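WARN no homologs supplied; continuing
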Amino acid sequence: MTAVTVNHGGPAGTAFAREPFGHEVLAVRGCESLTVANAPRSVLHDPAEPWSPTNCYMDVWIGLTATLGLDPLPMLGAAFSADFLGDQWEFLKPRQEDLETLYGLTVGEYDTWRPLAEHVQLVMSRGDALIVEVDAYHLPDTEGVSYGRAHTKTSIVPLRLDPAAGELVYLHNDGVHVLHGEDLDNALGTGVGSGWVAYPYVELVRLDGIRSLAPEALWQRAVEIARGHLRRAPDAGAGNTAHPDPADRLVAAIREHVPVLAERGMEYFHQYSFATTRQAGLTSGLAAHACRYLSRGAQEWPSDLDAEQLIEAAEQFDAAAGAAKTLQFKLARAASGRTPRIDSSAEAFVAGHTAGMRAVREALGLGE
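OK structure emitted
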């Protein structure tokens, strides 16, 4: 059995070899024995979830926190401040300050000024993690969608590297997977520079300050984070007709876009729905999880939150998530040349999202 380098924040044990991934087995702190079989799985990645996997960036944070023994639910307050940006629903991400407040994790852009494989080794040797933009064409877990078929950007987190075995354990979408041989080289090794993502965007996640707060303390911080997102939400002024609920604006834009879908067909639909109904649906689904987490805490510990109203908000957000999926199916029919009626699902999404936002505001003491 190959020995694993134990990471305590020090430098790499040996100089990097000419081989792109060196000789040492390296791992992110806490992942030294991680395999596909023993990797923890968050409830957010339950196959029964209507929008799991979510989006590539949210997924790696759900997976990384779970892998590190942390609860991802407290960071979902970001779903309350998501906006519609005119041509797309905001790509949901946890805020960097939220991650530091909740877990002690610091995140920032990382300059890849030398071969990417060397950066992966160096960062792993310190026990830290990288979020790396790669081409899904080389990721076997995207079999049937992108692997060997389509070049698309996505984000992964390398967790454990075994050069002798020629394999990398990594996080992507809703699980932990393994890269081997040529796929590994093309995704992170010498094949990167000539590939579709020649200059990948990379973020460094520093684990030296990681902490696991007591459940009540963690929940209290999550409450304040949720309130902060609600205050900055795009429809924070209830009844603001000049800047209505983002769900209203999304649906209005979709209605105008249906003829374009019919004209441009299914390939265009996949891109459009990913940017609109999918992001709106997964955001609503994660907002529902956030509300249930906050409600459980309100029932267990002293607070001024309305636990029952939070459950009501969760149910409304769940309804919005389901309506977004139905709306997406109908848009697919439009792209295939049919003439679907989208009004009922569009209105159901708006009603669920608007009612959910109203209920969670009132439950957290931010209503009118």
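Residues 266-300 form the longest helix (35 residues).
OK
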